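#struct-pred
JK: can someone run the complex with magnesium ion? inputs below
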Amino acid sequence: MPRLAANLSMMFTEVDFLDRFAAAAAAGFQGVEYLFPYAWAAGDIAERLRAHGLTQALFNMPPGDWEAGERGLACLPGREADFRAGVVEALSYAETLGCARIHAMAGIRPPEADPADLEAVYVRNLRFAAAEAAKAGRIVTIEPINPIDMPGYFLATQADARRFIGLADAPDDTLKVQFDLYHCQMSEGGVSRAMDRQWPFLGHVQIAAVPGRNEPDQGEMDVGWLLDRLDARGYEGWVGCEYRPRGATTDGLAWARRFGVVPQDGRT
Ligand SMILES: O=C(O)[C@@H](O)C(=O)CO
Ligand SMILES: [Mg+2]
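RT: done, structure tokens with the ligand placed:
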């Protein structure tokens, strides 16, 4: 059965970030993910994970200046030193949090940049990140993101993710695809076929309904069917619930019961 992780950047936002760990555990989750931990001390987060018996499934490397519109640094010429510092910081958090996967966001393509330069920088940076992750026993993921939500994002297609993994030629499977069903359906469709093609490269999976990015129990894509298919193929990794609840987070979890997310107080 797929192991569902609550995405604490989108779910349980009714409470402060550090209190979302307790809320996720009480709702029946055994794992969590979120975008960025860097505003909190790693030790404080680790304490919440321990206290509530949660596994940290994934988080992102520092993205650059998010408020100013940066969405990762990996493809940006001239920002290599910042990217590398981010890899080191992320791996330090991963060590304290016991987290196996860190996501390297690619960045927004600067309009004036030569595409060949961006690709060369991206591949070199990914190779560096994967090599550092390998030394620490972790893996790096890359995630194609749809251009409707994130215009100009450098890594937009599943095929490109496979291509860059090949070009980076990272050691021992340390560079993998973060396959977000929502982004794939938003921009490419053919999600089950895309999933089959990504199978050898799958490092993490995320879900949400399309088009609203809410609970995956409605919309144009049958997420339950896709999760069963993933299960039948033998996927043993985590599936991040990266969606914005339509109302209170716990009111929208009925869909997750059959995947083992059952509230600790027994209420369904
Ligand atoms: O899908 C997403 O938006 C996230 O997984 C992410 O890492 C970047 O926002
Ligand atoms: Mg995602």
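RT: quick notes.
The first helix runs from residue 20 to 27.
Residues 213 and 243 are 5 Å apart (CA to CA).
JK: thanks, will look after standup
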